[in-house]
Amino acid sequence: MKAQSLAIFLRYTAISALALVLDYGVYWMLASSGRLGVGLAAAVGYSCGLVLAYVLMSARLFRGGWLAGRKPAEVALFAVSGLIGVVLSYAITEAYVGLIADNLHAAKIAATLVSFVVVYAFRRYVVFRPAAEAAQ
Fold first, then answer.
1. Which of 14, 64, 105, 133 is the one with CA 20 to 30 A from 36?
2. Range of 10's domain?
3. Tens digit of each residue's pLDDT (9 = 90 or more) over 62-72
4. CA-CA-CA-CA torsion for 62, 64, 67, 69, nearest 10 degrees?
């Protein structure tokens, strides 16, 4: 992995960790209280973290990409990445609790690991792709 790519990945991970704190707090509050089922609580929590992630990533991490100056398109593609994450989070937490164990923490950890990798790839190579790569 190139040094620049590693730096981007590490900053992405740090921002994602902050968003995950919000995500998990909302998830835990809703799921443990019984207000929502585990899958829906995971989706709501993920959505809250998504908003924070976009604000931080667009301002501090991915600037000057191929969508620079086209904010509506950037927001729309980021929303698609969020939808991918929400669907994965919902499906994996529901599947985990239904098939493996009734453990809210382990279900969320499994969902987080899978969605982190998939969503990072989508954001890095689609949403915030560098302008130089898009021109090729």
1. 14
2. 3-135
3. 777 777 788 88
4. 120
**H/E element, 86:** helix 71-95
Contact 86, 112 (CB under 8 A): no
Length of the chain: 136
Nearest to 90 by CA among 136, 134, 44: 44
Number of Cα atoms under 13 Å in the Cβ half of residue 92: 21
Pairwise CA distance, residues 109 & 28, whole Å:
12
Give the per-residue pLDDT at 30. Answer: 94
Q: To the nearest 10°, the Cα dihedral for 60, 66, 72, 77?
A: -90
What pLDDT does residue 1 have? 57
pLDDT for position 136: 61
d(CA 120, CA 101): 27
